[in-house]
Design brief:
With 146 residues, the chain is an alpha+beta fold. Helix content is 24%, strand content 43%. The protein has two helices and six strands; from the N terminus they run αβββαβββ. Strands 1, 2, 3, 4, 5 and 6 form a six-stranded mixed sheet that branches.
Length: 146
């Protein structure tokens, strides 16, 4: 088994892929190699960020994992690109809040951690990117984080 942070990322990927309203490709730990030329947009990339310890006791550790979503879209009008980025954020929210434990016994909560301002650039068409954060509280055994 993998570290619990990786299990959380894999589960989030499953939840996003199960959401038929997302209408985007879902990748885990992949942003730099994405290409608009390969028809991959719109896309949501999921990766873990900081993992901060919370209170602990003699039996277990509680931790707060930051999950980073990078959303990328293309369009011809700036307003459409912004709307598409906002819709991806909404669908991420819907996917994660259907069950705030993500269906994992070791997760106790999942909450919105905010989002960056959209970044839009002009090339052959407009490309928009936005980073969205969520925070997942989970518990792990003292002797093995699996």
């Amino acid at each position: 088994m993998a570290h619990r942070e990786e299990q959380i990322i894999e589960r989030i990927g499953e939840l996003l892929e199960a959401n038929s309203d997302l209408r985007a490709q879902v990748y885990l730990h992949r942003v730099l190699s994405l290409s608009e030329y390969e028809g991959e947009l719109p896309v949501v990339s999921v990766a873990f960020g900081r993992d901060d310890p919370l209170e602990d006791n003699f039996e277990f550790f509680d931790s707060l994992l930051t999950v980073r979503f990078v959303t990328l879209v293309a369009g011809t009008e700036e307003a459409d690109v912004r709307r598409a980025l906002s819709e991806l954020r909404r669908q991420i929210h819907v996917s994660l809040q259907a069950d705030p434990t993500l269906g994992l016994s070791f997760v106790s909560d999942c909450r919105d951690g905010g989002a960056d301002e959209p970044s839009i650039v002009q090339a052959e068409q407009l490309y928009g990117e936005r980073q969205i954060l969520w925070r997942v509280r989970y518990r792990m055994n003292r002797t093995d984080p699996e």
